[in-house]
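Hi R.,

As promised on Friday, here is the backbone we talked about, encoded as structure tokens. Could you run it through your design pipeline when you get a chance and send me back a sequence?
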């Protein structure tokens, strides 16, 4: 089961302590993972941009930037899970890392078995439970399992929140998603300024719609919610 989970999974290790880095690399490689390693934040962001990892194991104390900056940089376009391995034990720092976008936080020193178990857990969480992991339109493809949108053979850069909105809509094609569901599932709140949600829809349309001023796929129904139509709107449905 572990081998099946590890197969073809790309793991990026970001760690400037070379002995610990080597130990992580060796253990991951033995378990069947494809491993990349970076000893600085800049190198990590460059590696992640060239080949999107399935998960990132990140030390917070790096020579060129703080781990928070790496998390923030990755979360601008990458939704892959991030496991923080850090000697920082303050609760406030752990909460801040999780709020910034980390998926898990493990305090050093830690056992390798625990690290591997945490990695398996976050990788399981990324598996899509939908029966339609890929949703195709005439202009772009939404890869739910890969957590990316492809157009003309290239991945479109989406922020974390933009991706969450697109993914929620793509998992429920042709269904009206009311605003309160977006608020609950993405922001975890019951109320938000309507203009805030509208701004996200504007940026999503700008990136994905062939004509953002005349939406074809992401249709807002005023006062009700948003509907994603992979085949485009029927003639009787007006977009807003």
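Update: got your reply. Pasting your designed sequence below so it's all in one thread:
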């Amino acid at each position: 089961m572990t081998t099946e989970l590890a197969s073809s999974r790309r793991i990026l290790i970001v760690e400037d302590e070379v002995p610990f880095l080597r130990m992580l690399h060796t253990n991951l490689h033995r378990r069947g993972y494809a491993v990349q390693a970076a000893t600085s934040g800049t190198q990590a962001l460059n590696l992640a941009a060239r080949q999107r990892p399935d998960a990132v194991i990140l030390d917070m104390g790096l020579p060129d930037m703080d781990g928070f900056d790496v998390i923030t940089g990755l979360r601008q376009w990458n939704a892959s899970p991030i496991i923080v391995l850090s000697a920082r034990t303050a609760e406030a720092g752990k909460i801040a890392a999780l709020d910034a976008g980390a998926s898990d936080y493990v305090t050093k020193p830690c056992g390798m078995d625990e690290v591997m178990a945490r990695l398996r857990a976050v990788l399981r969480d990324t598996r899509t439970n939908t029966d339609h992991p890929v949703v195709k339109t005439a202009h772009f493809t939404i890869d739910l399992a890969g957590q990316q949108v492809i157009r003309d053979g290239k991945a479109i850069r989406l922020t974390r929140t933009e991706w969450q909105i697109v993914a929620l809509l793509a998992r429920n094609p042709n269904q009206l998603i009311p605003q309160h569901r977006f608020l609950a599932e993405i922001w975890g709140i019951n109320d938000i300024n309507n203009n805030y949600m509208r701004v996200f829809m504007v940026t999503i349309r700008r990136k994905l719609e062939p004509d953002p001023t005349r939406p074809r796929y992401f249709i807002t129904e005023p006062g009700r919610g948003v509907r994603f139509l992979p085949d485009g709107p029927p003639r009787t449905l007006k977009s807003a």
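One thing I noticed while checking it: The longest helix spans residues 112-126.

Thanks again,
M.
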